[in-house]
Amino acid sequence: MKRFYLFLIISVVALILAACSAAAPEPVNLTIELSEYAFSPTEIELQVGQEVTFTIVNVGALEHEIMFGREVNMMENRPNGYSTDMFESAGVEPMVMMETSSEMEMEDEHEEGEDMHDDEGEHKEGEDDEMAMEDDHEEGEDDHMAHDGFMVFLPAGNDTATISFTVTEEMVGEWEIGCFELDGVHYDAGMVGKLVVNK
Ligand SMILES: [Cu+2]
User: Fold this and answer.
1) How far is the CA of 191 from the centre of ligand 1 (A)?
2) What does the pLDDT look like over 164-193, one tens digit per residue?
């Protein structure tokens, strides 16, 4: 009879252990604030299997970006992205959603600008300005394209983006989080964080 109880206890313990190890880790929702020149928090820990949502908020006065990788790329002696991108090397494509607040603000500014030109009755100049703005924009985008790997760029003004992905085995290890804006000036100024992925 005693043996039977022992067997029962061992079975129950084994079942509980199996249930625990099979359960996926809790999903994580974390806000990462970008400012001059830091990420907050500076250190993030994740676990394989975890569903992660990062809410990235630019609380600074300047444009910022966030990249995840290892071994900084040097381009003309300036830090420029990572040689190994965490998401690319893991074959994971995070889902990125941008908040529309800045787009709306930009549109508002735009309209204001157009109104002013209307008042002055100088429509053509307004159009030229628009063209110039678009050109600036494209140049800006080209600069960002120069960084290889996954990147989320946030203009200033409390802009928000969410990055969602599931942590995979390939991500296990230590990674850096970095901003390489202004030819790497932000990175040099200390805009670097740490991401640790545990098994
Ligand atoms: Cu930055």
Assistant:
1) 6
2) 999 999 999 999 999 999 999 999 999 999
- What pTM did the predictor assign? 0.69
Residue 77, domain member (yes or no) = yes
> 56 C-alpha to center of ligand 1: Å?
12
What are the two backbone dihedrals, phi and then psi, of residue 53, each rounded to the nearest 5 degrees? -125, 115
Whichever domain contains 181, its CATH number is 2.60.40.420
Cα(36) to centroid(ligand 1), Å: 6
Q: How many domains does the chain have?
A: 1
Say how many Å lie between the CA of residue 50 and the centre of ligand 1. Answer: 27
